[in-house]
Amino acid sequence: MGRGKLRIYLGAAPGVGKTYAMLSEAHRRLERGTDCVVAFVEHHDRSRTEVLLHGLEQVPRRRLTHRGAVFTELDLDAVLARAPRVALVDELAHTNVPGSRNAKRWQDVEELLAAGIDVISTVNIQHLESLGDVVESITGVRQQETVPDEVVRRADQIELVDMSPQALRRRMAHGNIYQPDKVDAALSNYFRPGNLTALRELALLWVADRVDEYLQQYRSEHRVSRIWGSRERIVVGLTGGPEGRTLIRRAARLAEKGAGGEVLAVYVARSDGLTSASPKELAVQRTLVEDLGGTFHHVLGEDVPAALLDFARGVNATQIVLGSSRRKAWQYVFGPGVGATVARESGPDLDVHIVTHEEVAKGRGLPVAGGARLGRSRIVWGWFTGLGGPVLLTLLLNSVHLGLANDVLLYLALTVAAALLGGLYPALASAAVGSLLLNWFFTPPVDRITIADPRNMLALAIFVGVALSVASVVDVAARRTHQAARLRAESEILSFLAGDVLRGETSLETLLERVRETFGMESAALLERADDVAPWTCAGRAGTGPPVRRPEDADVDMPVGDHMALALTGRVLPAEDRRVLAAFAAQAAVVLDRRRLREEADRARALAEGNRIRTALLAAVSHDLRTPLAGIKAAVTSLRSDDVAWSEEDQGELLEGIEEGADRLDNLVGNLLDMSRLQTGTVTPLIREIDVDEVVPMALGGVPEGSAELDIPETLPMVAVDAGLLERSMANLVENAVKYSPAGRTVLVAASALADRVEVRVVDRGPGVPDDAKDRIFEPFQRYGDAPRGAGVGLGLAVARGFAEAMGGTLNAEDTPGGGLTMVLTLRAAGSSRTATAPSVAPHATTTERQAAR
């Protein structure tokens, strides 16, 4: 009997439906007549899962006693004796109770498979051994039960059971996964939306990798050479030069743009093992590509382009990244180069990116004003043709007599060739040398510089004239080509200035860097001064060693108005380049003015916000402060009146009213002062390591006794916070929750540790807040719903969030499962991140007297 087949249902978290899917598959197979039994399935008291067990044969479990408790485990011997065709084994990563035949359940499954029994099992992504550290960093929980990745990889079929985090949390809230008493804790910790989303991504990516392996196997077995672009796979061609680091980083950025992108760096060496690459540089590049999540490959091949394309097609790549060639211009005589060859032969399925780097370009320099317009290699070949060609042709014609007319045409053709290659001067040299050789060797009388026949003189004159004409045409064409290239470069630069700069998409430093690259300079700086005698100051710079004292220190300076100049160092620019430089200088001034206008607008916006705050403060003072003052004055006036004899009970009520009014005034003024300090940025926390259970209970003094319940474990790590600010924040949150909770429903204050942070959750069962209003309730002077004017000025939550952020934490609002609102205060655990110790801001009111409002 052969080995059995393994089918695994993989999920991102408990409750997504793995066991349900496994049992449904068992019923389908049972209907087809397959001998299928339940070896071990745990329904966890989930009614829908339990119903599916009906009608399936279940092998009795083995009972084991450990430390005085009785446990049930998979009875491996009973299943082997039963010998079904298919066995259902739930929770593949489960650790067996000591005394079992195997330590792990996946080892039991291996024995079933070896016996020829097909197995259907389940596992969660967090139980894979290789993902233990990743899952712990996400959830803060270290998984103790794991299964080796190779066990799952060897499965004949892996099926992902997927569910969105929102749907899974709804199932949890409805009690379909855990018991009701565990729902709140689960939703607040492991089953948070962020955790579930990250685990879901891990599961999807892991399954995608397995699918990719199956695809490669299929392509290999069926000899499929055509590229199937199922995912972005980018091959980086390396030469061992320093530009390889740039190519690897560029490929990594391309891979990040697509989900599941992969980078494969490949170095092609000759088959004899000889290489001109630096082993040290290749080692550095290997480390870099592996740090970025890619792989490094070393292949052999005499034909580099062919080897590179074969490798790319073999791994089903979709893109190839190559660097611009480092070869000299004259070396292109020996071939078009690797980049051009790969681009030509890549076909429609492979995209080829040619990336520039520092080894081939020191900037986007404009075409040089003077010098050789045809290129150095063409001029060299032109002079060789113009001087050496007539000599070689003379030696040839001395052995083969073709007649004077044919000789003149051959020399003319040689002169035309020299003109086409090298331009005017090689053609003139060719015409001069050719005419002398024609006169000496082929024009009667020979061996003399004379011409006997006037017709031969005319032929030589026409020869020289044609040569000069052709050379002039070539020179004019070269000049026009040079001018066109320069105008094209200038138009691109001006288009850049008219686009990004005028739309405000370019910063001053970016523009100066573009100036430096365009003209191939070492540095660029924009200098300005207030008047003619004031010292120069640097408004922006780019490059190394820019001139910052005065424009005269630079190699090139371009004035911009009377008190501004663009200064560059590196070389002296020709006069024709200064026109484009002037455009850059003018736009640099525009960018600087725009930046300053934006800064002024930000200051004006801050002033306007301050005015809004002050206006709101005046409105609050006009009503919310006047009401308790009026009550206090009325009570005091009544007590001082001699017209009425107040009883002790009446006097007590009046005094109680005075005390409540004073408390309200103190609370309102405290929140107003807190918000004022937050707005002006004067809150400087004193960060220290403290225990949460030392501070949070003190924040409950301002609420009625029994209205709030604490659930703070003593095992929580210490947090790095300002004790005073934390107490103030928690007091506002708790009082706010108590205010909106229904009568008889207590507010829960719970804390838990998650990785390098601690979360404090304030849970109420009030009316809740819609999603679109959750951010607005943290704005100053916002009171949600129909809160009465006397409920406060709407600063409590704004102050709480401001203090939380000042301590390096966060404060957000979430829905409470079953109705209500949960405030989540996230704090840094001690040792995870330090901040400098600064003087603390002392609270100006006691925590028992603060009022919070939505």
Automatic annotation (TrEMBL):
Residues 620-831 form the Histidine kinase domain. Its main location: membrane. Residues 845-854 have a biased composition (Polar residues). It is an enzyme of class 2 (transferase). It is found in: Cell membrane; Membrane. Its EC number is 2.7.13.3. It is a multi-pass membrane protein. It catalyses: ATP + protein L-histidine = ADP + protein N-phospho-L-histidine. Gene3D superfamilies: 1.10.287.130, Backbone structure of the membrane domain of e. Coli histidine kinase receptor kdpd, Histidine kinase-like ATPase, C-terminal domain, HUPs, P-loop containing nucleotide triphosphate hydrolases. Signal peptide: none annotated. Residues 832-854 are annotated as: Disordered. InterPro entries: HATPase_C_sf, HATPase_dom, His_kinase_dom, HisK_dim/P_dom, HisK_dim/P_sf, Histidine_kinase_KdpD, KdpD_sf, KdpD_TM. Pfam families: DUF4118, HATPase_c, HisKA, KdpD, Usp. Keywords: ATP-binding, Kinase, Membrane, Nucleotide-binding, Phosphoprotein, Transferase, Transmembrane, Transmembrane helix, Two-component regulatory system. The chain crosses the membrane at residues 380-397, 409-437, 457-478. GO terms for molecular function: kinase activity. PANTHER family: SENSOR PROTEIN KDPD (PTHR45569:SF1). This is histidine kinase. It comes from Streptomyces ambofaciens. The lineage of its organism: Bacteria, Bacillati, Actinomycetota, Actinomycetes, Kitasatosporales.
